[in-house]
Amino acid sequence: MTGWVVLLFILAGVFILLGLVDQRKFWWMTTAWQYRNPEANEPSDSSLALGRFSMFAMAVMSIIAAVLVMDAQRSMDEQKNRRPTTGVSFPSFLSTTPTPDADKAKTYSRSEVRKKAEAVAAKLVGELVFNVRPIITTESDDNLRHKERKGKDKYTKDGWEYTEYELTNRKGKYPVCLTVREPGPLHDGRWRIDSAKVRNGRC
Which residues cross the membrane (predicted)? Predict the structure, then answer.
């Protein structure tokens, strides 16, 4: 952009010089030759004055344009040189504020584990059987761990299948047992979860 600034200032200087010269002589030097009878086509004083004013106006416009270009260049340079305010880590001895313990911030309490497990259970009811594990995996975010545990009696008399999932916080504490009731072999054509219940303790 520096080249544009220089060019605009040069143009401004040229327009100023053209405005300062004798406009009548300038007309005779540059335009009169185009006419067969120049004396009959010589411009009036008001027309020459308007031409002088136009030259000064063009000079002012060139200067304004150059200033705007300089300002835009300055803004771009400041943006490039500005240091990022996020995503930068500093040594702990240079920091004036305590660094939060990310592990503690993401560890669920007993009540939070239970609440999260109940939310997972509510989402499972009515879902297709093959969506159970993906849903539990998705809903059990980084703060919640899950582990599948098969019940002792996989099939009951009425043909329902029970699958248990043990949920804990990310440190393996505060376990709860999520029991999912799925249609067994005696429920042909039924592929949706019947119920999902949560109880405290390990499965």
Answer: 47-70
Give CA–CA dist 18/104, Å, rounded. 76
Please report whether residue 100 resides in a domain: no
Q: Are 52 and 25 in contact (CB under 8 A)?
A: no
pLDDT in the model for residue 85? 47
* Residues 122 and 63 both lie in one domain: no
Mean pLDDT (10-residue bins), the chain, 203 residues: 83 90 87 84 87 92 89 76 50 45 66 91 89 82 75 64 89 91 76 90 88
The helices-and-strands tally (H runs, E runs) of the chain is: 7, 4
The per-residue pLDDT for 151 is 55
Residues 25 and 67 in one domain: yes
The domain total for the chain is 2
- What one-character DSSP code corresponds to residue 146? E
> In terms of residues, how long is the chain?
203
CATH code at position 165: 3.10.450
Mode of pairing for the β-strands spanning 144-155 and 176-183? unpaired
Do 76 and 128 fall into the same domain? no
Rounded Cα distance between 92 and 89, Å, is 9
Identify the pLDDT of residue 188.
67
pTM of full prediction above 0.70 = no
Q: Tokens 């939070």 — which residue? A: 112
Range of the structural domain that residue 185 is part of: 111-200
